[in-house]
């Protein structure tokens, strides 16, 4: 049976379809088998219904869930069209994994008997096995868009739950579990080594995967990022139970000053005094709860804590030593790994650390697996980092599992790195990225670092402000309703009037998220985009500086898509140096915005606080002969523009007075009107099936010389 | 000089262009001249600046206004492109005619000197005269759309102000006016005759003009209406000063019970004790203020009062006699005229009454001009009616004077009929229709009638509710943005699925203002349109019953157009008998709406309080094999539909769940889905330059047999 341990994740680029098909089949069955092997640790079927953790489902759910997941993803991926058991495939669909620590789940579930769930698991196993035989496969192997991806996703999903279920079993009463020989603990327990900080050279780390990567990855692993990491010091060992015990003995759990606000709130609510798996027995001795056993606390094993406890320890250590001690960032962890390990799970001959079920079924001493001067660069227990998980530039959501990553991009889920003794499959890879709420327990501990470098938080969150989304979409989204993007329509209409020659400057008023500003910069040496709404300017500036933006797109009802748009995909990357964005009130423009050859006012009249003053003064900002282009819907809002500041759309001297007449009256002294006004349609997505359509009038005005 | 009195309005169908040109020139100059003759009644130029009526401009305004009006209308009509004096043409553009009696105009105007205004008048006179020489004219004469219409409109406008300025002069202090021989009063003053009620036979009256009418008319005179008038009794004479004096002596001005609420409020505010032009002198004798003289009150002249006083008199008379005494309706006035007069001003040899300046420059005795048994059917003073002015079916706004009539269609402007001694031009015609606020003074009095017939108010006002206008426009408006009307798009998509054969019944849910209901009725023997919004049903029902609806269309800013849509213009008049409209909640349909061959649900799912229940039950309303068509944007609103009643657009079992999936799950038991869903675009006008565009999904379902 031991051959089900130490299995490696699939190399999906395998070009022999027959071979790859059999590799998938083997990986699938081994995964299924070891998953079931895990549940053998439960004393009886009744234990499946116990809620090991009040915040999560009982284990019966996970028994069904890992099977149901295959079917649900195969259906969403349109590989299967028929359900096996609609009731199970609904009941076992959604976990309760991401709740707050004080938000108890009170829902009542009517879980079915275990034999029924097992029968269902067998059905799924047979169905997937049949698919593995039937699905076409060619020499390109298995890629992200292939129907096979759903099967591999199911396998890797099951491997994640292998680990998380092992944590849940670890939380069941000892009387309801049994220690199997298969899940045998490490027997090496003893004195802890003295920890010390060792220097780590700075350098560049490259994170992310591209589509050609031959290994399965979750969507958050794709895209690419490159960071310069300053030199720092890192502890030689993971923090051992002994080292952490000093913190406890020093009253660490009682002193609020070491804790973050979130940490102290959690500690108080939980009345935590010790790490979760430590037990103080009747005689006062400390013991450790392992998955299915309790043993005297091994001082030289790594401590297992959540992020909040790890941070409190670092703060205590920093206070005691007067040094900038903290947890490593994601980049620092990678730097450390890249300097000390150059292989990865599919290609190593034997795991270099306590990982992938290749050595023990528990932690082991923190001085057992050396990587140069350091220990446990990977394996043993996961290592908490300071970095909340975030998407890399180039991130795309996988369509058949669109809520795997995105709900965790909230700044409240910190990355854990390096894997534990039971991390297998994708979990054991360099590029894997898992993140949990900071109060969560896994088989996780930490290494501390010393660094004065400021931590960079790489959050470019998805813009979700309903007031901004229509402009993100209108500027950068796919063409709505088969219409061309408005910025392109506008630029095409402006084309005949754009000046040529070197050194030309343009001003774009009402720039929103900047699309027309960038487009104008194809024709000018400098374009300034101005908007009254700073939140829009922030998005335009992100596009200039980072080269990408992210926002939500409303689909149907509450359903939303996560969109990332990259400047380079519009062929605009070379314009980024020529544009600048500023918050400004067009009714009250500061002096420095002057001397332009061309001014485009896009929805800027209707958006102005005082359009009259704006238009009366705008000629002062153009060079003689300069062009003013106004594209506007004259859709004045009471909350923005007082009636007396509007340019038209009312009766004057008893007669209807249009905004075009108003523009002519206001601009006539300084400009001549070029050409006939044109009408352009601008589309703003307000929902998946609802748009606002604005008919903008485009007028072109030449400043008199 | 006397040849400028008694001039007749133009017969515009004159087919000799040379002749017509000279007739226009003659009419124009005579009008200009008599207008100036009127102002000679002012003692000096300073009198032009006195505010005769606190609610209206001083006479200097009207001196300028009647000239400015020609230029402004010629410019709007694009006959002229150059202004003569932009400042005058703004300052003299808008009168202050329609204010409430307690809303004093406090604006400060910087009126120019009278000689300047007179010079401007001369300039205009010369310019218009030149135009009369220059403008092309052919044998079709002058029609509504001709550039000449602006000139004739200017002349008729000046003739209206001839009368209204004569009323303002009548309100100036006696010391500031002079009695000219030209404006000589009637000298016949004496005993008043005893009034009595005489029977008037009922019959049909036909009101309105069509485009072929050879006389100038204001826009409110066009269209056509036909009414059956029941027999009634009418007073032989207009109410004389003596007859009204009985009311006063009986304490009429002190007894609230005779007054309408509006009347009593006016009386109280004005502290009115006598008709406006009556004066009680130091000796207690009653005197009458005429235009430029004061004379002992002639008891046999008609009393001049506003509507509110006339109504109080009628109520007093009714109370005293126990009879249903009231003012006549517009139709009753026409009935009386048609029975007693068959000529009209352009064709009579001598005015049959004291009208058109053909007899006196004041009122005359109420028994001077007989029309059969009655007197003063036309002329002497205007006669107040019970009827608020309203547009006839077929009414169109004249584009160069779009606010002549529409602001008076508010139910607060009552028609006056018959003309006064100074009513000339269009004012003296059978078809002319003038209306004033009920507290206003003109040279107006009244005749009373006795009738138990209920008064019909012919108000089909312009729908102005912003929540309803988009649906009026979407159903009946011109094709937006070059797209076909949505009802036509929808019906075309439904065409292959409409059952054929006799006796078929359809149900239209979410019928709004009914367009698709009527369109469906081309294919069915009966179509019921249901909507939750009763105000929409009211509009649909008006279209069925009256054959037309009216609504405002938002143009730019505050500018709106007045739209009338007629069923016959859509070729739908023959369907009117086959449609019915009811208010109903689709989530809770009453039993009687059953047994249909076809059900169209148009925006009905998204608009339902409980779409789930609606869809679960809808199969019970169809015959076996019947078709259900759903065109919907699934755009559920929180204020209407609770989340738990929605059909999709959320995550279910962790996966995105679209509304189409929801429909399939809900309807699947009873229906089979026909064909692929189609996407149709529905456009809702929200403003002149702003639309809401909805992408509706059309699905077709056949009820299982």
Features:
homodimer, 705 residues, alpha+beta, seven-stranded mixed beta sheet, four-stranded antiparallel beta sheet, 15 helices, 27% helix
Topology at a glance:
The structure is a homodimer of 705-residue chains.
Chain A: H1 17-39, H2 59-76, H3 86-91, H4 114-134, H5 148-170, E1 197-200, E2 203-207, E3 225-229, E4 232-235, H6 241-249, H7 261-270, E5 278-280, E6 286-289, E7 294-296, H8 307-321, E8 325-326, H9 330-340, E9 370-371, E10 374-375, E11 382-388, E12 413-417, E13 434-437, E14 444-445, E15 449-450, H10 469-476, H11 486-494, E16 505-509, H12 515-520, E17 526-531, H13 534-546, E18 548-554, E19 560-566, E20 579-583, E21 596-602, H14 611-617, E22 622-632, E23 650-652, E24 655-657, H15 659-667, E25 671-687, E26 690-703
Parallel strand pairs in A: 11-14, 16-17, 16-21, 17-20, 21-22
Antiparallel strand pairs in A: 1-4, 2-3, 4-15, 5-6, 6-7, 8-15, 9-10, 11-12, 12-13, 18-19, 22-26, 23-24, 25-26
Would you summarize the structure shown here?
The structure is a homodimer of 705-residue chains. Chain A has 705 residues and is an alpha+beta fold.
């Amino acid at each position: 049976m031991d051959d089900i341990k130490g299995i490696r994740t699939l190399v999906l680029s395998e070009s022999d379809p027959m071979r790859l098909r059999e590799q998938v089949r083997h990986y699938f069955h081994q995964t299924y088998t070891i998953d079931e092997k895990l549940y053998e640790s439960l004393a009886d079927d009744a234990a499946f219904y116990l809620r090991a953790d009040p915040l999560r489902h009982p284990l019966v759910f996970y028994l069904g869930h890992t099977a149901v997941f295959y079917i649900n993803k195969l259906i969403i991926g349109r590989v299967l069209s028929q359900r096996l058991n609609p009731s199970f495939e609904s009941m076992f669909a959604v976990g309760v994994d991401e709740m707050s620590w004080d938000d108890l789940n009170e829902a009542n579930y009517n879980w079915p008997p275990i034999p029924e769930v097992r029968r269902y698991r067998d059905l799924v196993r047979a169905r997937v096995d049949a698919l593995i035989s039937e699905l076409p496969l060619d020499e390109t192997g298995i890629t992200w868009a292939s129907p096979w991806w759903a099967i591999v996703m199911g396998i890797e999903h099951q491997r994640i739950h292998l680990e998380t279920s092992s944590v849940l079993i670890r939380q069941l009463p000892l009387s309801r579990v049994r220690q199997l020989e298969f899940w045998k603990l490490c027997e090496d327990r003893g004195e802890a080594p003295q920890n010390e900080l060792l220097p780590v050279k700075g350098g560049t780390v490259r994170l992310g995967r591209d589509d050609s990567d031959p290994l399965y990855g979750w969507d958050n692993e794709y895209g690419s990022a490159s960071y310069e990491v300053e030199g720092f010091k890192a502890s030689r060992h993971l923090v051992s139970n002994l080292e952490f015990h000093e913190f406890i003995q020093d009253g660490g759990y009682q002193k609020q000053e070491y804790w973050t606000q979130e940490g102290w709130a959690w500690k108080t609510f939980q009345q935590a005094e010790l790490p979760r798996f430590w037990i103080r027995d009747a005689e006062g001795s400390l013991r450790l709860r392992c998955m299915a056993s309790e043993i005297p606390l091994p001082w030289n094993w790594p401590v297992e804590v959540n992020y909040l406890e790890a941070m409190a320890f670092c703060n205590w250590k920093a206070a005691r030593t007067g040094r900038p001690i903290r947890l490593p960032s994601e980049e620092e962890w990678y730097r450390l790994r890249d300097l000390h390990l150059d292989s990865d799970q599919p290609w190593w001959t034997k795991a270099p650390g306590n990982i992938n079920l290749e050595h023990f079924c528990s932690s082991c001493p923190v001085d057992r697996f050396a990587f140069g001067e350091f220990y446990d660069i990977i394996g043993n227990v996961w290592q908490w980092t300071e970095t909340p998980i975030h998407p890399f530039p180039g991130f795309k959501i996988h369509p058949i599992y669109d809520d795997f990553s995105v709900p965790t991009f909230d700044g409240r889920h910190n990355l854990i790195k390096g894997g534990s003794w039971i991390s297998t499959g994708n979990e054991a890879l360099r590029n894997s990225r898992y993140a949990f709420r900071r109060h969560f327990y896994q088989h996780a501990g930490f290494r501390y670092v010393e660094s004065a470098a400021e931590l960079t938080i790489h959050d470019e969150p998805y813009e979700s402000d309903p007031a901004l989304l229509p402009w993100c979409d209108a500027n950068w989204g796919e063409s709505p309703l088969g219409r061309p993007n408005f910025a392109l329509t506008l630029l095409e209409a402006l084309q005949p009037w754009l000046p040529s020659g070197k050194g030309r400057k343009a001003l774009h008023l009402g720039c929103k998220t900047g699309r027309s500003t960038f487009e104008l910069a194809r024709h000018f040496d400098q374009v300034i985009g101005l908007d009254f709404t700073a939140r829009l300017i922030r998005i335009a500036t992100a596009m200039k500086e980072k080269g990408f933006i992210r926002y939500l797109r409303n689909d149907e009802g509450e359903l939303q898509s996560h969109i990332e748009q990259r400047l380079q995909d519009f062929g605009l990357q070379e314009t980024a140096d020529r544009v600048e964005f500023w918050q400004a009130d067009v009714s009250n423009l500061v002096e420095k915005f002057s001397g332009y050859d061309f001014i485009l006012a896009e929805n800027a009249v209707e958006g102005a606080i005082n359009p009259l003053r704006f238009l009366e003064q705008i000629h002062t900002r153009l060079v003689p002969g300069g062009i003013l282009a106004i594209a506007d819907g004259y859709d004045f809002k009471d909350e923005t523009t007082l009636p007396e500041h509007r340019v038209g759309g009312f009766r004057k001297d008893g007669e209807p007075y249009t905004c075009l007449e108003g523009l002519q009256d206001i601009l006539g002294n300084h400009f001549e009107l070029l050409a006939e006004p044109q009408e352009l349609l601008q589309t703003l997505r307000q929902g998946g099936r609802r748009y606002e359509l604005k008919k903008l009038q485009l007028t072109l005005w030449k400043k008199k010389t």
